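does this look right to u?? zinc ion version
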Amino acid sequence: MPSRTFLQWILWLATVSCHAQTLVVSLYDYSDLSSKETLHLTKTADLVLAHSGIHIAWLYCRGALAEMPETTCEETMRSNEIVVRLQPGVSRRPENGTMGRSVVTTAGGSYVSVWAPAVRTQAAAFGMAFALLMGYAVAHEVGHCLLGSGHSHAGLMRGSWNRKDASEMSRLSLHLTKQEAQIAVARLTLAQPTAQK
Ligand SMILES: [Zn+2]
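got this back:
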């Protein structure tokens, strides 16, 4: 739990960081998505987080859009990098009814898993495109890596999504709250490789 002083400092930093910050996302698809689905989900996550001032630089490490050997992606881990794995199975903790999980400490996190079958089932229940919900699920877990494990009662970081959220997703209007966006951008500002001198 950050101290009030630390939070105030983060928010101050947010007010002076007016440029979009870059987040590198290394994507490992073990769930055999098509290139069309992969593009749809990455573009969705792009739009969702761009609204908060976060630019995603994707590294396609495994899957339909992978261009480079997997080892190239694994050589280095940048300070502003998150590894996202799209899994074909189910969560080991399915009792949470979860579509994804992030490994997060108080300092944030760098590893995300999203379970494609759970997302497919939920997308069908909402009557929305699977890849669109995948993009939102990835953006939500990436949000945990930048904001911590807590959920909020509005927007992208709600603990579970309902039909109202689904209709906002279909209009691409479900986002981080303004304060979450400020904290996420500030955290990312600290993590930029050029900021580490
Ligand atoms: Zn969550």
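Helices lie at 4-16, 35-50, 70-74, 116-126, 130-147, 163-170, 178-191. idk if thats expected tbh
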